Amino acid sequence: MSDTTKTSSAWHNWAGNVTARPARAVTPSSVEELAETVRRAAADGLRVKPVGTGHSFTAVAATDGVHVRPDLLTGIRHIDREAGTVTVEAGTPLKRLNVALAREGLSLTNMGDIMEQTVAGATSTGTHGTGRTSASLAAQIVALELITADGRILTCSAKENPEVFAAARVGLGALGVLTALTFAVEPVFFLTAREEPMGFDRVTGEFDALVAENEHFEFYWFPHTGNCNTKRNNRSLGPAAPPGRVAGWIEDEFMSNGLFQLVCSLGRAVPRTVPAIAKVSSRALSARTYTDIPYKVYTSPRRVRFVEMEYAIPREATVAALREVRAMIERSPLKISFPVEVRTAPADDIPLSTASGRETSYLAVHMYKGAPYRGYFAAVERIMTAHGGRPHWGKMHTRDAAYLAAAYPRFAEFTAVRDRLDPDRLFGNDYLRRVLGD
Fold it and tell me: What pLDDT shows up at residue 254?
């Protein structure tokens, strides 16, 4: 066997809040080697978990068994221009996929704002952007390949193994190890982004109109202030007109990463300074408009380390829930340096997608790495669950299988597929036991 196998040292996720000590780490160089890895782990009585770049804040990828590192399973397998699809190895980082597609004159329709994750990790946890009619990364999958607990290589689509396909698009790593994904793609296009400061009362008062009038709308509210920053992305005929090099560096690197790092560090050390800093920093961002190909508009660098919780709620509950979060912060001693992010998604048909069967809004809250987050997250979680919230699978939450079975009408459909594919829980771990049950 030619894969790289070693006794593993401790593994940490990107945020540093999850640690795992797998018995061994394996870096297979082919799908066949990966299948043999799965069979060998089963024979040795070890559980198996693939792990990408560690961008999940939950322990979804943690294991004391075999960690599968997909570093060698990367790149585009096949482009079908007639069908409008691209098949990509599961370990491919989104940033590499985006660049490769652009080189071929192609693009995903929608994506999240971070592109460090592998395609398998991002889709398996339900990673999404914002969109009026275009949904998450997983909703753009038209076929997939995975290795099952008995070491078989299974191909799935709406026509082939359709029950597995339906579930495995957001599979949490519970159904098998993804080895390839086929995405619907389209000819590359231009997006014009309009970033604009806006007052909290105006954003919440016009929220439905802002969503309806824009292909992709999102906004950030700065706690302790009445200030928001909005972003509207809409298709454009072009030409490309990216931010100027100096202006772009000031906004994306200095303001959003370098200066923000210093602000967060000061707020963690001296919490009482946070409200005053928030009032200044929320006014520092100016309006700007720029046009570029999709991944250069959708995504942005995130170098400040943080922990995050995000809930999906019915879209009609957005404004009420956000106002409740604001009232909670104002009457509490909490000092929150990170803005609250609000995005939307259309309903989709994936059993464990956070947008499954309903028009959805996402409210995400963050805290700087090392800052106390539990009180804040717990208070926000109470508000979100009162609105029927569904937690992002890769972000921090305290929900269990009993709650989630009630929150997802097709929960039992997913667990039935899991029982059939992995009855002995070869791909299980403590997190999956909590959120899916035994």
Answer: 43
